[in-house]
């Protein structure tokens, strides 16, 4: 964790020092000058941004624009299909990052026109200057969409902007500057940039106002000295926070060794970008593994999510992450949480377990459990369980367990209280001091039922001990089978 934090700090400071070198006063341009700037660009008949379409397999990109008559036909634009326009972010080296090509390829699996707004000349600059250019690029995107509307009768409602990092805010500026009665169909913000955007008003960044439907994936919001790379605050109708949004599995500094083997010296930027760019790869994954969609669940924070308290899909409280997100606007904006694997396919299955323990030992117990989960399709052995707190009284504990494979419907649970050195000592000491006659009720944890909820199927289940003995001893495994004993009454009691 510590080393991973160093990486984050390094990147944030890198961006920050660049911003500072050019003065913090270089914020986005004032709002009032927008329409004029667009008119100027149109008069020049040329934009700084190049708009490319990717019609055929492995095509390098075909430039379109009002300064190139006939370019739409030439570039294979099909006006009866939607347009997905990728917008890259701030650029360190002035070349397109490899994810752009991966995203183009993934989008080609869909019946859509795939485009790219290439604004590298402006993106390859000091960060604060690129931020200042973002509004202009957004206006150019809006101008191209208006041109498509005028020349092809192509509705902006068929447009989906996918912006990464600073490109997410470019998308927002496109949406807010397009003018007219109607909005752009959809904007997806992939780990939208935080520096100079966090905490600003909705008109200064990507916001739900900018399109009919706005979704965002936050993957690198870990803060240092009040700064982070990805924006923390909600900016969309549905804001997804995979693994809490702060950092991503598989991106730790220790993984640098693996990256070294793969990328040589390039491993350093690869590692730095890992969590930030994960937002893109989660989106790509949603296109390439359509049948393995990741579900996010509305929750107030990752702490509650980790207790399994948020696996609820009622009233639009859950949604699919990525391209196939349900474009539904019900009530307020929602922040959704989920766990992912460290690599594609990223999807996991989320389960909430609730166990009511009775601890009759005066000393609080900090147990380590493992659960073996037997499903109709597969069995997962020895899944570690941490309650995150000590067992002190007759309380119900709720926790989250995530599984990579699909085990089918859960039918059996084997719970084992793992031996820990500390506990063994307590156990032995107690056996020495207190003269028990065989098994005594005052000697261990008692539990009768385990209740479970599967997030992905929304199924609730109750499991009961197979035999009568409800005492749980260290190192002992207990078997729980499906039973549906007055779970309604239990639920009422617990909630
Ligand atoms: C344009 O898209 C429509 C709808 O997907 C499709 O039916 C049609 O064949 C496409 N036209 C060309 C020329 O590819
Ligand atoms: C837990 O429950 C048992 C049996 O119902 C009871 O004897 C015991 O006093 C309770 N302990 C606490 C801390 O409430």
Automatic annotation (TrEMBL):
InterPro entries listed in its UniProt record: AB_hydrolase_fold, Lipase, Lipase_hep, Lipase_LIPH, Lipase_N, PLAT/LH2_dom, PLAT/LH2_dom_sf, TAG_lipase
Pfam family, one: PLAT
Cell compartments where the protein resides: Secreted
A GO MF label: phosphatidylcholine lysophospholipase activity
KW Chaperone (keyword) present: no
Domain (PLAT) ranges: 349-483
Binding residues annotated for Ca(2+), in chain numbering: 205, 210
Name assigned to this protein: Hepatic triacylglycerol lipase
Native species: Heterocephalus glaber (Naked mole rat)
């Amino acid at each position: 964790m510590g080393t991973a934090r160093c990486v984050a700090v390094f990147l944030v400071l890198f961006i920050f020092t660049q911003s500072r070198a050019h003065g913090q006063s270089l914020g986005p341009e004032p709002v009032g000058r927008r329409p004029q700037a667009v008119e100027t660009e149109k008069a020049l008949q040329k934009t700084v941004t190049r708009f490319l379409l990717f019609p055929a397999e492995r095509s390098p990109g075909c430039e379109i624009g009002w300064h190139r008559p006939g370019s739409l036909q030439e570039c294979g634009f099909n006006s009866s299909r939607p347009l997905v326009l990728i917008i890259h972010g701030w650029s360190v080296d002035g070349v397109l990052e490899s994810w752009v090509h991966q995203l183009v390829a993934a989008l080609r699996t869909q019946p859509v026109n795939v485009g790219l707004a290439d604004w590298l000349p402006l993106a390859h600059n000091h960060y604060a200057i690129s931020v200042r250019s973002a509004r202009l690029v957004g206006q150019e995107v809006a101008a191209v969409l208006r041109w498509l509307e005028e020349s092809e009768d192509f509705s902006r409602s068929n447009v989906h902007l996918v912006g990464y990092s600073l490109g997410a805010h470019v998308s927002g500026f496109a949406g807010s500057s397009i003018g007219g009665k109607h909005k752009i169909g959809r904007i997806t913000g992939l780990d939208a940039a935080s520096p100079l955007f966090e905490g600003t008003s909705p008109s200064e960044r990507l916001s739900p106002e900018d399109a009919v439907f706005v979704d965002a994936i936050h993957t690198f919001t870990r803060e240092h000295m009040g700064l982070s790379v990805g924006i923390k605050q909600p900016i969309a109708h549905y804001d997804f926070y995979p693994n809490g949004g702060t950092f991503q599995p598989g991106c730790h500094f220790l993984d640098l060794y693996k990256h070294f083997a793969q990328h040589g010296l390039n491993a350093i930027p690869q590692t730095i970008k890992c969590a930030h760019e994960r937002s893109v790869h989660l989106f790509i994954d949603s296109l390439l593994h359509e049948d393995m969609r990741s579900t996010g669940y509305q929750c107030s924070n990752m702490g509650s999510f980790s207790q399994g308290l948020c696996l609820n899909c009622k009233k639009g409280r859950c949604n699919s992450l990525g391209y196939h997100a349900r474009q539904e606007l019900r009530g307020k904006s929602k922040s959704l949480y989920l766990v992912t694997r460290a690599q594609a396919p990223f999807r996991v299955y989320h389960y909430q377990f609730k166990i009511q323990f009775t601890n009759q030992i005066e000393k609080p117990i900090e147990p380590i459990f493992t659960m073996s989960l037997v499903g109709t399709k597969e069995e997962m052995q020895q899944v570690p369980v941490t309650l995150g707190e000590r067992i002190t009284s007759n309380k119900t504990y709720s926790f989250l367990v995530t599984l990579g494979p699909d085990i089918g419907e859960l039918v059996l649970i084997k719970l084992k209280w793992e031996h820990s050195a500390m506990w063994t000592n307590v156990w032995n000491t107690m056996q020495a001091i207190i003269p028990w006659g065989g098994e005594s009720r005052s000697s261990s944890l008692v539990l009768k039922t385990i209740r479970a909820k599967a997030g992905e199927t929304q199924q609730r289940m109750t499991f009961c001990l197979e035999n009568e003995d409800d005492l749980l001893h260290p190192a002992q495994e207990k078997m729980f089978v499906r039973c549906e004993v007055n779970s309604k009454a239990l639920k009422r009691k617990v909630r």
